[in-house]
């Protein structure tokens, strides 16, 4: 019996997606739950799982095709699968004849067809490859691992294809030449197109201004150094700088609610909750997962969520729930070495805080010149909602809270 494999149902805000990559090919054995393909939307990447075990009979859409919610993209003929797709039950009958390795009980190693094909394509000797499959058989993964170790700068095509975070556009597009000079044209990914659209929208529709300040990070760094080991031992996560900024931002938002508001037509919506977005870079582009109800979370919970979001972003596993909404955003260009920048707000939010690289600088304290770790802060805001006075005081509040962290505990 043939089973149609369909694209997952998209949320209402998503109408279509792009089939980024196939993880299985027609003729491959698949088990129920195996991920067959990835579909990229303008927000997240959806995995398309096999809903039945059997043989992938045909692919009804190609990599790069636009697909709709619920559209059939493949057909699986049901069949009981004893072993995984990389270790078919009876695929070794002629392996010994083709590669000089026996498939009988003599103790010689068996090579699966997919591994055999890759060995032949790369001109390798199977004698050099260690098999990790059943009874020591050589799997496709063993060949890929061997290639990675021997030729680390030349990632195998098969390995690239299995990486869900890489859009097909990054691999597509033949090199062309203009006036004898090389160029490459690739289609823009849906996420990149959406990022461009929202940035232009923000600049076109909002009255953007940016105010700057600097913060002495010595008190935070000293506090973090003093309690780092006990914090990690108690909570199981390392203590970074971001939880301090999230806590300081939430307190500043409570004092200046305009920065936690948004415009809806001719109305201003003042949010009574604090959903703070943390901008995270990924292979697909910038994404902003949300720490919901940040005012109710302690520093350990915030740190754990940030690390979880970072891992999910790298793996392309962020969900719609992870990145939808948000009342204010924090972005940290300092991790990439940025000294100063003017971040663009994430519509319909009215503000975004930009963190930057910590740099030791000479500063005056009590009439003396001392060296302190200084970070420049930038607050971009929508002047339609936020006046300059509130914006400056908001940033000064964050500065004061970070320079005296005890104030966040005492709420003064």
Q: What do we call the CATH homologous superfamily of the largest domain? A: Chloramphenicol acetyltransferase-like domain
Anisotropy-based shape: globular
Per DSSP, what share of the residues sits in E-state strands of 2 or more residues?
25-35%
> What's the number of domains?
3
Structural class: alpha+beta
CATH class type of the largest domain: Alpha Beta
Number of separate strands: 21
| Overall pLDDT score | 81
Helices, strands, pairings?
Layout: E1 2-6, E2 16-22, E3 29-30, E4 35-40, E5 45-49, E6 54-59, E7 66-68, E8 72-78, H1 95-99, H2 113-122, H3 140-150, H4 157-161, E9 175-178, E10 181-184, H5 190-205, E11 208-216, H6 218-235, H7 242-255, E12 261-264, E13 267-270, E14 276-278, E15 280-282, E16 285-287, E17 290-291, H8 299-315, H9 320-323, E18 328-332, E19 351-355, E20 359-365, E21 368-382, H10 388-403, H11 406-410
Helix pairs in contact: 2-3, 7-8, 7-10
């Amino acid at each position: 019996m043939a089973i149609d494999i369909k694209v997952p149902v998209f949320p209402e805000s998503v109408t279509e997606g792009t089939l980024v990559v196939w993880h299985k090919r027609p003729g491959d054995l698949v088990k129920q739950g195996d991920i067959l393909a990835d579909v990229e939307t303008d927000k997240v990447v959806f995995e398309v799982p096999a809903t039945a075990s059997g043989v992938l009979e045909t692919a009804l859409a190609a990599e790069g095709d636009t697909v709709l919610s619920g559209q059939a993209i493949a057909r699986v003929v049901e069949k009981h699968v004893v072993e995984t797709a990389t270790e078919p039950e009876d695929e070794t009958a002629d392996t010994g004849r083709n590669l000089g390795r026996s498939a009988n009980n003599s103790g010689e190693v068996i090579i699966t067809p997919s591994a055999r094909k890759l060995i032949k394509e790369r001109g390798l000797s199977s004698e050099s490859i260690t098999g990790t499959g059943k009874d020591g058989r050589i799997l496709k993964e063993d060949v890929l691992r061997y290639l990675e170790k021997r030729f680390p700068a030349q990632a195998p095509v098969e390995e690239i294809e299995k990486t869900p975070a890489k859009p097909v556009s990054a691999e597509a597009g033949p090199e062309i030449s203009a006036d004898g000079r090389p160029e490459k044209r690739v289609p823009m990914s849906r996420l990149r197109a959406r990022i461009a659209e929202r940035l232009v929208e923000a600049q076109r529709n909002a009255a953007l201004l940016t105010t700057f300040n600097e913060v002495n990070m010595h008190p935070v760094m000293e506090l973090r150094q003093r309690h780092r080991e006990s914090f990690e031992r108690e909570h199981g996560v390392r203590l970074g700088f971001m939880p301090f900024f999230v806590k300081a931002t939430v307190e500043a938002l409570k004092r200046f609610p305009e920065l936690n508001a948004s415009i809806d037509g001719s109305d201003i919506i003042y949010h009574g909750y604090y959903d703070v977005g943390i901008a995270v870079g990924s292979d697909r582009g910038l994404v902003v997962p949300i720490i919901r109800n940040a005012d109710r979370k302690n520093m350990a919970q915030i740190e754990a969520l940030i690390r979880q979001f970072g891992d999910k972003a790298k793996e392309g596993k962020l969900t719609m729930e992870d990145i939808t909404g948000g009342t204010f955003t924090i972005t940290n260009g300092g991790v990439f070495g940025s000294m100063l920048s003017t971040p663009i707000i994430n519509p319909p939010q009215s503000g975004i805080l930009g963190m930057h690289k910590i740099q030791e600088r000479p500063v005056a304290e009590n009439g003396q010149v001392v060296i302190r770790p200084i970070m420049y802060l930038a607050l971009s805001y929508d002047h339609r909602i936020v006046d300059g006075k509130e914006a400056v005081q908001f940033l000064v509040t964050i500065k004061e809270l970070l320079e005296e962290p005890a104030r966040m505990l005492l709420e003064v």
